[in-house]
Amino acid sequence: MSKVKEHTTPIHPGLVLQDELDEIGVSQTTLADHIGVLPKTINEICRGKRGISAEMALRLSQALGASPHFWLNLQNNWELSQIQVTKLRRIGTVAA
Fold first, then answer.
1. Which of 14, 29, 83, 87 would bridge 46 by S-S if both were Cys, CB 3.0 to 4.6 A apart?
2. Residue 63: what pLDDT?
């Protein structure tokens, strides 16, 4: 039995955040004020210039309802997609 590998293109979590804000009609500034961060922080996340930390994931979870794991998984998937695997191929398994 062969496994079917699911291929999805990861997107920056900031795009998901901006889509969510657009959908619920909340501005970046309103969200920032609500969760106690600078508006610049939310803007940088939405523009893909800043990632989502564990603390930010918790703040977004409290404000928007999605789990912190949702936001962290988006961030992790994005970061992994940005690594150039060809540079890592020369690393072999460590023998004990």
1. 14
2. 98
Strand, coil or helix: what is 9? coil
Range 13-85: architecture per CATH = Orthogonal Bundle (1.10)
- Looking at the chain, the whole-number percentage of residues with pLDDT higher than 70 is 92
Neighbours of 25 (CB within 10 A): 7
Contacts of 59 (CB under 8 A, 6+ apart): 35, 36, 37
Strand ranges inside the chain, DSSP E: none
Is the pTM value of this prediction over 0.85? no
Q: Give the separation between CA 77 and CA 70, rounded to whole angstroms.
A: 11
Domain boundaries, the chain: 13-85
| Torsion sign over Cα 62, 67, 69, 73 | negative
Element containing residue 50 per DSSP (H, E): none
- The confidence score (pLDDT) of residue 20 equals 97
